Amino acid sequence: MGVLKKLSILRSCLPLKNKRIAVIGTVFIDCKGFAFQDYRPAGRNLGSIQFVHGGVGRNVAETIASLNVPTTFVSSVDATGIGHEVVNHLQARHIDVSYVKEAPSGGMGMWLAILNENGDLAGSISQMPDMAHIEQQLLEQGDKLVQETSHIALELDLNEPISRRVIQLAAQHGKPVYGIPGNFDVIGSHPDLLQGMACFICNHIEGERLMNATFEGVPPETIIGHLKAYVKTSGLQSIVMTLGAEGSVYFDATTGESGYQPVFPVNVVDTTGAGDAFFAGTVAGLVSGLPLAKAVVCGTKVAGWTIESAESTCPDIAARAAGDEVLGELLG
User: Fold this and answer.
1) DSSP string covering 98-151, please?
2) Residues whose CB is less than 8 angstroms from the CB of residue 136 and which lie 6 or more positions away in sequence, other chains included
3) DSSP summary character for residue 18
4) Inside any domain, residue 1
5) For residue 320, is it within any domain?
6) Counting beta carbons within 10 angstroms of the beta carbon of residue 305, is it exposed (0 to 12), middle (13 to 18) or buried (19 or more)?
7) How many structural domains comprise the chain?
8) Domain-located, residue 9
9) Do residues 119 and 85 touch, judged by C-beta distance below 8 A?
10) Lowest-confidence segment of 59-63, 87-91, 115-119 by average pLDDT
């Protein structure tokens, strides 16, 4: 069966009539350095350097849209050639960018990342964009945005006013919110933002900070116990925690479902976009009507494909999804 026909079948499998997700988050330009040999922090290292479009929100929006979920992106970009390039790239993937605001400066952030010989992050520095642009956009058009969409994916660490306004509007209109941390500054200081959230997805390092626990070397069953306890006290509806190469664990308080999901074998190129991809794949599954356990399988698959790419997102994700037996079975 040809790829185009498979893509058509995949689209028809997703029960997405009258569904549209708003992704609220940042745009970054990522500067990534890949070491050719053993990385020496205090020495000179030969390698390759690439500039790619990034940002948690941007990455999530592109990946969800590539999985054929109608997507609206809410963000800001600089009124420059690079900013226009980012917007054009998203439009080419059929993403609604009418809520992306152009700013004279501070519309986008920058991320400097160094990856070692194994493709793992060895160090990074972030320059955040000016959140006032997104905050103003949501102040003026937030109510309209939430009314137009059925689901919301929110980068929680933009700033507290943005997160609180989005969550308030979502509650007012009965729209589920899926949260992903960024630098953990906001959610670490204001964990009450998680109350009532449909699903919160984080990594084990963020989970340790949130739950004041240590998960390294701890069996998945024990970690699941921590998740259940935290969901009960926080008011979350469900939570997923990634464990790096060890997979992920999850708990859904609305169904009582919990479990462990191992990773699929991959050829590692760059691990930096894995978390965003996992979140996007899982949320796409949830929006499509899958239970959390099956949505996590989608997230695991998408994260694996992204790890095999040097970009912040997997460029051929739609074709991979169309030809994948596991996703075909889940979404068929």
Assistant:
1) EEEEEESSSSSEEEEEEE-TTS-EEEEEEE---THHHHHHHHHHHHHHHHH-SE
2) 101
3) T
4) no
5) yes
6) buried
7) 1
8) no
9) no
10) 115-119
Residue-wise pLDDT for 106-127, tens only, equals 999 999 999 999 989 999 999 9
Instruction: Look at the chain and count its residues.
Output: 332
Sign (positive or negative) of CA dihedral 9, 11, 13, 17: negative
Q: Is position 97 within any domain?
A: yes
Residue corresponding to tokens 């925690």? 241
- Tokens 């893509």 identify what position? 7
Mapped onto helix, strand or coil, the DSSP state of residue 161 is helix
- CB atoms inside a 10 Å sphere around CB 172: 11
Tell me the C-alpha distance between 47 and 242, whole Å: 29
DSSP 194: G
How deeply is 259 buried, as exposed, middle or buried, from its count of CB atoms within 10 A (0-12, 13-18, 19+)? middle
CATH number of the domain within which 137 lies: 3.40.1190.20
H helix runs in 114-266, sequence order: 132-148, 160-173, 185-189, 204-211, 220-234
State how far the Cα of 178 lies from the Cα of 175, in Å rounded to an integer: 10
pLDDT, tens digit (0-9, with 9 covering 90-100), for 245-266: 999 999 999 999 999 999 999 9
3-state SS assignment for residue 176: coil
Give me the residue label for tokens 């609180």: 164
Phi-psi region of 198 (alpha: psi -120 to 50; beta: other; left: phi over 0): alpha
Cβ–Cβ < 8 Å for 21, 72: yes
DSSP state at residue 256:
T
**Strand 257-261's sheet: what is its strand order?**
96-103, 71-78, 21-24, 151-155, 177-180, 199-203, 238-242, 248-252, 257-261
C-beta neighbour count of 82 within 10 angstroms: 14
Tell me how far apart the alpha carbons of residues 197 and 231 are, in angstroms, rounded to a whole number.
10
SS3 state at 238: strand
pLDDT digits (tens, 9 = 90+) for 15-35: 566 899 999 999 999 899 999
Quote the CA–CA distance of 102 and 105 in Å, as a whole number: 9
Provide the domain limits for residue 191: 18-331
